[in-house]
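Checklist before submission:
- one chain only
- standard amino acids only
- sequence pasted in full

Submission:
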Amino acid sequence: MNFQGNVKILVVDDEIDLEPLIRQKFRRQIREGVYNFVFALNGLEALSRIIEFPEIGIVLSDINMPEMDGLTLLTKLKELQNPGLKTVIVSAYGDMDNIRTAMNRGAFDFVTKPVNFDDLEITINKTLDEINLIRRSMAEHDQLVSIQQDLNTAREIQLSIIPKIFPAFPGLNSFDVYGSMVAAKEVGGDFFDFFLIDSNHLGFVIGDVSGKGIPAAIFMAISRTLIRAVGIKGVSTSECLSLVNSLLCKDNISSMFVTVFYGILNISTGELEYVNAGHNPPYVVSDSGVKAVEMTGGMVLGVFDDIDYQSKILQLNPGERLFLYTDGVTEANDINNELLGEERLEKFLSSRSNSPIEDIVREAFHEVNTFASGMPQFDDVTILAILYNGQGK
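Returned file contents:
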């Protein structure tokens, strides 16, 4: 991006013959739009011109002028705190004390009188280069600030669609549910959700979109919305994911995919119907130990159309907990690049078989953070836990 054509040059000097002389000497550059001059006879008039023409980037100022001299003008310009405004002092060669003072007050450069216009042109061009560099940096900074603001907004939107009010169903005692997500970046591709399909069935899902950042967050929002919209109609888990997969495959120009575990829990009997579409197998946590939920052989969503997903049935007994997670948990690595892994996770869960699910989720995050202490978070971390209390409790 070239800002040079937008930069005006303000010449501040009480010699009225200087303006026609400069216009004559630089007539070609003026005609071609390389230089754009504005003139003032003293410092006060110069300040007025700067307000009138915010495009002014260079101030060529004499030192000795009536009403407001060049040194006072320098002080006023410094108060503007505009890094894209540079001052070049023009003064007699014998006036080195004032020139030195001007440089100490923030002047970018100086030119001595009588003015050598070749030297002045070199100085102007050098100053313009510096201004262009500064303005590019300022524009890039503003762009980064704008992007950061957009990311913050995207993060707020994403977090707004993740359940965060607990207890989620205070009027129901047959089960309890709790979950949390921490994105590796401002926004992430992990998600979880749960919803009552009817008075007797709870639908719940956890997913992990390929990739990171904004694209993953958009695909995550689409995936979560489709699963909820289809699942809340009460269709089976296999029918739900088959339909959602077909919808995701249409116009998937980014070639993204999502791993999903979707289940429907009968809150009266504890019967769980589920489909695992390429996701990490959840764990059933009970007094008798920790057991991984059997896989169903399902393909990730969003890759191949017309896939028939197969479901399985799992029986949860009263007091058993279902622990679902994304691979940001087991693939967290320490300073030795060792992964946390399933074995450590299972050991952690076996020691929490009787803990409230809220404590299990929070302590699991603490376990991940402690294990990966000193290492940056490379992947989203999401955990969802469900406690089945049994009918009538």
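Reviewer check: The radius of gyration is 34 Å.
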